[in-house]
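Suppose you are handed only two things: the residues of a chain and a line of SMILES describing zinc ion. What would the bound structure be? This form records exactly that question and the answer produced for it, so the two can be stored side by side and reused later without any lookup.

QUESTION INPUTS
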Amino acid sequence: MFWAPVHAYLLEHPTLGPILIDTGISRRQTQPDYYSARKGGLTGLIWQSIDNWLPAEQELVAQLAHHGYRPEDIQHVILTHLHEDHVGELYRFAGATVHLAAAEWADRARMGYSPGYAAITRWHHFTYDGGRFYSFAACADLFGDGLVIALPTPGHSYGHMSLLIQMGTYQVCLAGDALYTLRHLDADSLAAFNYFGAVGFATQQDSVRRLATLQVALPDLVLIPTHDPFAYTFTLIQPFLADGQLSPAERAALQEYQQRLFDSRGVLKTEAYPRFEQVRQDYGRVHAPLP
Ligand SMILES: [Zn+2]
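ANSWER OUTPUT
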């Protein structure tokens, strides 16, 4: 076990207002009995090892308040997938339209728990009807304005989706769990844990390669993973995005960080490999050196 962050994102759309992307974990998920009742199989094992930590100021509602919003102000929620750490606070947004790939919805029985989607009455289970988008054979322009583009990145879950957001002169991609960390962008060097065995692994590798190719086509694209516990998230992305945008200097710093990790062919340098250090029998730290 090691520590990793769980992120959700707030997008202030020029005409649609605040849009929430994923909903993180909830307080009830931090209670010890929440997971201990679930036993059996690989997912049971994973659940037994999860130890969620959520200080009051990091709860989603508190963070929305920090930006001047109440849950009822959120008219749109977009979910990258239905895993528990992405739908924990979904029940608070019963008045919103929730956008989720139809393929992920169709596979919801596999999740093995009942995430907070019972409260949701307005669903947009979208399909990818938007034609090719660079390295992706199809996309979905969620609001018809070209600003928020859903890209199919299956593998981590059956209908996993990543989101490309047009920010004007540049783009950001909220990769969801298609990319655990930025280092996972080299899908041949760093394996991502996968629930579906070899088939899911190959599918996820394909999704990651498409994201890498997309960034080659769009050099001003910033990739944002959900669970990166390293400096990329905490020294760069998080403080940079606090004002809702990335300045040219901030984007240059992100690009420089990425260039230090990968060689010119996109291969992760061995000096940048994350290293696990055991601290206790069931707990350790991951170090990620920056060459
Ligand atoms: Zn996740």
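WHAT STANDS OUT: Helices lie at 33-36, 41-49, 60-66, 84-87, 102-106, 197-217, 231-241, 248-261. The chain is about 25% helix and 20% strand.
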